[in-house]
Amino acid sequence: IDWEYQGVKLYPDQPFDCHGVYSGSAFIEDDKIYVYYTGNVKLEDGDFDYINTGRESNTVLVVSEDGKTFGSKKELMRNVDYPSDLTCHVRDPKVWKDGDTYYMIQGARTKEDVGQALIFESKDKINWKFRSRVESEKPFGYMWECPDYFKVEGRPVFAFSPQGIEAEEYRFTNIYQSGYLADVRLPDIGQIRDIYKKFREWDLGFDFYAPQTFEAPDGRRILFGWAGVSDSPYDNEPSIREGWQHSMTVPRELSWKGGILCQKPVRELEALRKDEIVFEQGEAEIHGGTFDLVAERDIAGDIPVRICFNQELQITYGHGVVSMEFLNNTGSGRTIRKAKLDGLQNVRILMDVSLMEVYFNDGELVMTTRYYPEDPMTTKVSISGMEQVKGWTMSGQ
Fold it and tell me: Rounded to two decimals, what is the model's pTM?
């Protein structure tokens, strides 16, 4: 919950990562942190398309014993070590161990513009050999980024972020997607059938992509998402003017409810609750810019719901559809997102001065968005259609 900036620890300072220390994962064993990442290289002298030519995606390892100081970098694999039918786009290694074997999964794009994931195996965490592919029976986007593999309550989950999925009315509405497949067991899977039906997005708001998970000491599976999507038609101009752009979501606990992985803000966040917010006839004026709201009703039903913030952003529910809609330009180009939901029983909303996360039915559905209120320190909220409403301002920055 409390974080202190420690500076940049991994710079793009080697020939094999000179244009970016791209994302990957950390594997902990024997009190050492093995950090695997993609070293990005973009060649400059030549006529390159940067898909099939002009780019290097190198798998790199660096080890730390304290998380603050790191040893020398070691290049483990280059593009020539990946299958020959792939483009230059191979990245985002995630490592885990099963028995006495280490496994690594990476996202990839084929020369036929089909998204896949690659499985490698190793006995020593350093020397890796290609083992198999994770692919869909029918093409599902042109690139699979940021793969993750883990278990929640014993059930395996394969998560990844596909690019190039055609938008539908209630799904795949962002330019790039991020979600998971339940009960996919790695490393051996073969082809995935009915992937369009089985794939479930983590978040149906405007700003969520490329999450990663880790296991907490008490066994909880915790997810962090990136509150941003590259190449979106909307922007973050208000924060860019202040010298920064994106952020992370709050950490989320994962748990199963039926076949759905529910996401809840980690329970530790409740320690930041400060002053209780008083609602009168469903309305309140909140000061400070950071708050936690919970609205509930006794029976999940189809009674219309409307939650409005400053007459700028509204969340509605009716006829089995949730919507998040900006009523003016405080979305910085964002307009509306919709999602299907079979009955609404509760809503939890976390807000700071530029980010809102909305959790429906204990995290069965989540919608995240950047939001730039005209007055970020004063929020007027009105809620209708919910029986019980409570909230708290929150401490911390």
Answer: 0.96
